């Protein structure tokens, strides 16, 4: 975000506060409960959203050097992510080509080859088949060049490693994020490192978890004992960039700040949330970024990943570790409150009543997000 845009957003928020108004959409909207419980819709989301669009599977520093690897999953697909001897990242389905056994069980590490624990078929970090016991005798007519691991599209951009499950997808990372690339690049995520990471399962639809961060209407209620006192009451603003949303969540200190001071930074008085469609959110704060990720498992079950990313130079030292541990705890506590709300909503949705959710005019960012989901499903 450039300086001009930063000051423009600040002025917009201050004008809304002065007018004692939230950022208002065109009107009240409604969303069907079926959007959050339908098996058919969820399968459609898997096919047209999660498997078609790029997904940030890891921060680049998770594969710090050559011949490193990590195990992951997305949309029900087990994955092996590697960085080969030349430093190039790759992604593969984590199954041996022989009989489908899980190839790698370790969460992460360093290795120049991966050997199946069932029959010892081996593969390189570039996914190529290397060797297998008694291969010539039992499989001699097969072409070794065609026995490499099943590859998945993989690129490194904006500090993350992105994978796309469907090889036929036309939504490449550079194209998908072009509308917001300037902001993305200005965050310099490649210079950050993972301080802490927590993964939990939430008994709620993935969209409920995304929606939880897109309005400030609930801050003074659901977060009354945590972050609520530090933020303005029902005050936020958002902009749409292609499929993505940028939202400004002002803290109570913004109203008393000197915007004319050359040292003024919006980040000192507000959090900026980027909802990078479909499953990546970046909550940008004063001195670090919280990367949250939703990994859908079923219509009513989602894996939620919370990662505290900090400048590499601020990661070392006992004091720094304590500071980041405290920040990460605050993040997990606050998002845990949102998850509890989402689970409560999901229980109501699963009760089977034919109802709709009501979105007020100050919840229009939720409508914009769901419009993008609907448009993608119709494509």
Automatic annotation (TrEMBL):
Query: Could you say which cofactors this protein requires?
Result: Fe cation
Among SUPFAM superfamilies, the record links this protein to:
Bet v1-like, ISP domain
Family matches, as InterPro entries: Rieske_2Fe-2S, Rieske_2Fe-2S_sf, Ring_hydroxy_dOase_asu_C_dom, Rng_hydr_dOase-A
Q: Which residues form a coiled coil?
A: none
The Rieske domain is annotated at 54-163
Query: Which Pfam families does the entry link to?
Result: Rieske (PF00355), Ring_hydroxyl_A (PF00848)
Q: What CDD domains does the database record attribute to this sequence?
A: Rieske_RO_Alpha_N
Q: Which UniProt keywords apply?
A: 2Fe-2S, Iron, Iron-sulfur, Metal-binding, Oxidoreductase
Protein's name according to its UniProt entry: SRPBCC family protein
